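Hey,

Quick one before I head out. I ran the complex with magnesium ion overnight. Inputs first:
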Amino acid sequence: QSSLQVPAFSLILLIGVSGAGKSTFARRHFLPTEVISSDHCRALITDNENDQSATGDAFELLHWLAAKRLQRRRLTVIDATNVQADARQSLIDLGQQFNCPLVAIVLDMPEQVLNDRRKTRTDRSFADPVLHRQRRDLWLWTRYLEYEGFSTVYRLKSADEVDQIQVVRQS
Ligand code: ATP
Ligand code: MG
């Protein structure tokens, strides 16, 4: 079993296309209160986590919550696709503002795994073009995460790797 070391106080961005397993990973390794999810923020505002019209407000809320937690030096996990560099930038700024180490966990699953999951998933299904764009963004825009300001970058490339990982907090 391999371990993924994170500072006890850190801002962790989960990065991955829809269906990559971000929310599942977050549930398995972190307290529910440590995780801020863009879908949950959308639901808090519109009662519907799929309401894309609320995305702007949802991210405002997400940032606000993250700032309040970081101010108190609470470990914070962002569960959003985070596949585009601009989507990450404001979170990186936030982490730096609070002198908080930034950790990226990229769930870079093979296309086959994503397709299989899509067939069985009942809670959500994005149209092909959306997923295609997310996959392209992941491929194009997550190559230089260290240069963006992340002090630690983990890239998990298979479901097996994800299932065997253990998150270890360093005090
Ligand atoms: P979204 O961006 O749409 O919220 P997500 O990245 O949060 O997607 P999840 O909801 O965690 O993805 O997972 C999508 C589907 O894949 C779920 O049906 C889940 O049960 C399955 N899944 C996630 N992780 C694993 C895993 N490690 N092994 C097997 N199935 C998994
Ligand atoms: Mg999710």
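The CA atoms of residues 9 and 73 lie 6 Å apart.

Talk tomorrow,
K.
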